[in-house]
Structures are given as structure tokens and as C-alpha cells.
Amino acid sequence: MPTQATYDDANLILRLYELRREEKLRQAREWFSRNFNPSTVEDMQLIAPPGSQENAYVRMLVSYWEMASSFVTTGVLNQDLLFQSGGELLVVWERIRVLVPELRATIKNPHAFHNLETVGNAYIKWMEAQGPETYSGFQTMVSGMAAAKAT
Q: What is the pLDDT at residue 144?
């Protein structure tokens, strides 16, 4: 059974939202949602070549959500409150999950993205518990975001 969210949990959520308003992170979030949908690491390197601004955007956004996820995995932040506060974490996880095994092998770190993976998968289970079509509807929306960019 999930623990009750606290005042400190709410304050941390608000702080995370303040950080998301930082100009560079806003640009990264905008670019990522419109442009980042690779199916392989090779595709990723074409979309966001090493050393490019786009690569910096990917690293910035993924590391932001890895950090936020670490707050959940270590018990600092209430998981349900995070899930109820927005879906961007899951958008990021949906976009990188297929890349994670190859990225881990490339950087020789089997624990890379562990927090994001753990919380992203828990988010999926939480979403499925909300209703039988909730997660599939979310996936359709995320796919639609990528398709809208392609047209």
C-alpha cells in the first residue's frame, strides 16, 4: 500500500516544476517531445549527434528525469504524487526504453538509467490500474506526438 504524501513531497514536486521552467530545460523538453523518437542508438546519433545541441537536450532531459526518479526509488518522494502530477517522465521513458539495453552496453554500465527504468515501469503499472485502456491510450498519444512531427 502506498504511503501518504506529505507536505515535503508536495514541496519537492513544486521544486521539480520550478526546475522544469528553466529556459534551457524548457527548450530541451520542447525539442525532445517534437523530435526525439529513435528506434536504435544509431538513429539516436543521427537525430542527436554527439557534441550537438540536440544531444545536450537529450542528456539534459533524461538526466533530469533520472534524478527525479531517484527521489522515488530512495523513498524521498511519494511515487503516487509524482504520477498524479504529470506524465512527462513516462513520455521520456517511452522514448528511450528501447535504447537502454544498447546504451548500457555501449557505456559499460548495467545500472545506467536504473531509476528511470524502475519508476517508468512502476508508472506503467500505476496507469494500468487506473483503467484498462489508460496506458494504451497514453502510448497512442505519445506515438501521435511523433507522427505529428513527421507530417
A: 76
Quick one: pLDDT at residue 1? 47
**DSSP letter at 40?**
S
Q: Comparing C-alpha atoms, which of 95, 60, 71 is closest to residue 16? A: 71
Q: Which residue has the cell 559499460?
A: 108
Query: From CA 120, how far away is CA 92, in angstroms rounded?
Result: 9
pLDDT of residue 88: 96
How far apart CA 36 and CA 39 sit, in angstroms, is: 10
- Give the separation between CA 53 and CA 34, rounded to whole angstroms: 15
Count of other CB atoms within 10 angstroms of residue 93: 22
| Parts of the chain with a pLDDT under 50 | 1
Cα gap 65→119, rounded to integer Å: 10
Alpha carbon distance 69, 76 (integer Å): 10
Average pLDDT, the chain: 94
Question: Residue 71: how many CB atoms within 10 A of its CB?
Answer: 19
* pTM greater than the 0.85 cutoff: yes
The DSSP annotation for 72-83 comes to HHTTSS-HHHHH
